[in-house]
Fold this sequence. Notes:
single chain; Endonuclease III, domain 1; globular; 11 helices; Adenine_glyco; mainly alpha; DNA_glycosylase; 2 strands
Amino acid sequence: MSRLIEGPDGRHRCAWAGTVEAFLPYHDTEWGYPVGDDIRLFEKLCLESFQSGLSWRTILDKRENFRAAFDGFDFNKMARYGPQDVERLLGNAGIVRHRGKIEAVINNAARAQELVAEAGSIAAFVWSFEPAPEELGEPQTQSTSPASVALSKALKKRGWKFVGPTTVFAFMQAMGLINDHAEGCAMREKAAEARRKFVKPV
Length: 202
């Protein structure tokens, strides 16, 4: 039970969900549930890139600011950003003002367009890297997997930036490519049921 806490409703949750107030609703309604929407997938890859070296709390607290600043993470719009947009974003105190990360996600928007042209959708591409259950250990005991390494390499080969294996593994956890809710967490079966009903994009 060391990876669990008791939630306000008396049911157990992953321990990390109790560390910050905003984490509980995110844990209960988003984290680990499968996503097939390209904008949401791209947004999460961007936010995980911004999180590199920072805490998820920092990013989650600023998520709405990021969405407003980056046109809702519409990669078709972001791909048209130029130097003036980089300067605009660097002046936005509501987001993480890191030139390298800002330029990386703008670059990744153009790469996302290319990926859609290649694979039909971002969803179809990333879900083709869904890990086999046997390559995963006990929930929340690893920060990478063979699948996250493979997806990271595939994205980097296509010119994506700030998408290392750890970043990609966190993306996979959050977007439901794996169910990493702790054993005994009330949301583990809920996420598992969502995964069973999910139709993988092709």
